[in-house]
Amino acid sequence: MDAQPFHVRSIMHRSFGLMLVALSFACVPGAFAANAVRGEEIYNSRCIACHSPDANRVGPKHRGVVGRKAGSLADFNSSKAVRTAGVVWDEETLDQWLADPQGFIPGQRMNFKVTDPTDRADLIAYLKTLQ
Amino acid sequence: MLIQSKRLDTGVITDRRALLRGVGTVGLSAAAIAVLGGCESMAASKSAREADVEILNVALGLEHEAINAYQLGAESGLLQDPVLKTAVMFQGHHKAHRDALVATIQKLGGKPAAEKSMNDYATALNAGSLKNQGDVLHLAARLERGAANAYLGVIPSFGDKGLAQVAGRLAADEAMHWTVLASALGETLPSKALSFGA
Question: Is domain B31-184 classified as CATH 1.20.1260.10?
Fold first, then answer.
């Protein structure tokens, strides 16, 4: 086969390099700025069945959740597993919780995973606005 | 023409005999769910069974809330026929879901989550803010979409594949409710595929 002209190889190399950069960003949680507006949309679509910012429902209310000790709401009956986990909710613990609640706190009740890292980052950005 | 005459603007069949046939189908469906669910869990370890019961009890909490939300709507005086009839029919679906979940939880040796008081649900759902039929329908649509997504979201967490299938069937009912409510509200349907569960 004929060798490809230099400019074609150059374009292919650059394209491949850009693809690698894009892929590396896609695989790193938080590589892009989290989007609280999108996080609110996700919240209203996937979390709203059980949660609200200001009311305890099937799950606890979320206003003030960032910085709060897990299971510490006086007016919500959290599971013993969550109450005794010794976890304080911050970006890192919320990310681990949303990715795999049962893996993070065995014996919890939520069991709803948010598998996409970008979705989790955006959700956490929204939760941080609920102060 | 005959079929069209039985349908109103919400797209729901409101003819009395058709509605009764629909209720019969719900009863059969609930019984089937109760029989189908939990067979693998019964044979599984105690911890795996308890984990499935926890998920079912969260689902039961959703159904308790949905039943009470429709009750609040029905008693509000804000819903007119045929919307009221449709709301009562959807509440009947949720009661069937509740009964199936209670039966399955008990079959697995668990204790079903208790229903809260109507006042608790009214407070949590901010029922005082409902001023017209559209407000009630928006609340119902929000809860139904959330419930569909919640059921889809817990499917991978079930140890028992039969229970995972039941969650899928429940999600399908909630998605059907959302579709009817969105249509009644005049909302555009999702233009993209796979709009639930993600």
Answer: yes
Query: Strand, coil or helix: what is A88?
Result: strand
Tens of pLDDT, residue by residue over B12-23, are 334 333 333 343
A/B interface, count of CB pairs below 8 Å: 58
Which residues in chain A have their CB less than 8 angstroms from residue B57's CB?
109
CB-based contact B67:B147 (threshold 8 Å): no
Where do the domains of chain B lie?
31-184
The tens digit of pLDDT for each residue in B113-168 reads 999 999 999 999 999 999 999 999 999 999 999 999 999 999 999 999 999 999 99
Which of B58, B152, B154 would you mutate first to test chain A, the one with the most A CBs within 10 A?
B58
Domain with A79, as residue range(s), is 32-129
Q: Are A58 and B62 in contact (CB under 8 A)?
A: yes
Three-class SS of residue A69? Answer: strand
A15, A49: one domain: no
What pLDDT band is residue B45 in, cutting at 50, 70 and 90? confident
Cβ distance A109 to B54 under 8 Å? yes
In a shared domain, residues A87 and A100: yes
Q: Check A45 against B150: CB less than 8 A apart.
A: no
Query: Are A63 and A20 contained in the same domain?
Result: no
Say whether both A40 and A83 belong to one domain.
Answer: yes
The Cα-based distances of A94 to A67, A68, A91 in angstroms read 10, 11, 5
Supply angle C-alpha A65, A37, A41, rounded to 5.
85
Comparing alpha-carbon positions, the chain A residue that sits nearest to B126 is A55
Residues A26 and A38 reside in one and the same domain:
no
- How many domains, chain A? 2
Residue A38 at interface with chain B, using a CB cutoff of 8 Å: no
pLDDT tens-digit series, residues A80-120: 999 999 999 999 999 999 999 999 999 999 989 999 999 99
A79 and A49 housed in the same domain: yes
- Residues A50 and A111 grouped into a single domain: yes
The ipTM (two decimal places) reads 0.74
Indicate the residue of B124, B142, B153 with minimum beta-carbon distance to A55: B124
